[in-house]
Amino acid sequence: MITADLHTHSFFSSDSSEPTENIVRAAYERGLKTICLTEHMDFDYPGGEFILDTDKYRAELARVRDMFAGKIEVLFGVELGLMDTLAPRLYEYTSGFDFDFIIGSSHLVDGADPYYPEYFGKLGDRNGILRYFESILANISVYDNFDVYGHLDYAVRYSRAKNYSPADYRDITDEIIKKLVSMGKGIELNTAGLKYGLGWAHPHPDLLRRCRELGIEIVTVGSDGHKAEHIAWEFEAAGEILKAAGYEYYAVFRERKPEFVKIT
Ligand SMILES: [Zn+2]
Ligand SMILES: [Zn+2]
After folding, report:
1. Overall pTM surpassing 0.85 (yes/no)
2. 1 Cα to the center of ligand 2, angstroms
3. What is the pLDDT of residues 173-188, one digit of tens each?
4. Residue 124 belongs to what domain range?
């Protein structure tokens, strides 16, 4: 069982309407020891959505942390939408807050969100997924202030590719993984894939195994829950998925430093 959910959203993220205390209460009721809120901060998102009022968020988190003191640990995180063009602004932003944990994620590829059908409609499945991975490599070549890369093959969720095989993208994903290893960064196991009926958690088990083979040591586990009922989604399965890929430990970040916890 995994007892720390390190990827969650509350109403500070514009795609969630759940009060922060409900997220924390759900985590406590599910028996977690640690929860990290990782609200969205996506600069340059079309329409200006996903800009986080970080001061307000931090203040509310302090209030909720007090409310649950002695019951569950509450950590201060952020999920940053990365693009190579944003690097200077991301450095400036992250230096202004004492985050426990920073997830770097790709939500936009060349300014377009793969969530919307236009993305794969224009590029097709194969090139859409390839371009998504290429953009990750570009992001981490110019920006390094994050702890783990989020939902590594997230775009696949929105493609119509029924037969996605990570082996088809191995050249580019190996480059990403090797670069992350050289930077001392980790990845996350994101169980939202199971929630959305993909049948697997991000990254795909073959890609997760490849991360292990190429030397990624740090893996956090997150539900990517935007509602109370999604917190710790399939965390029993998550432990088994990690073990099957060769991992014996998952990581919990505090003040940007990983602690390794044995998977029981
Ligand atoms: Zn995300
Ligand atoms: Zn998220």
Report:
1. yes
2. 21
3. 999 999 999 999 999 9
4. 4-262
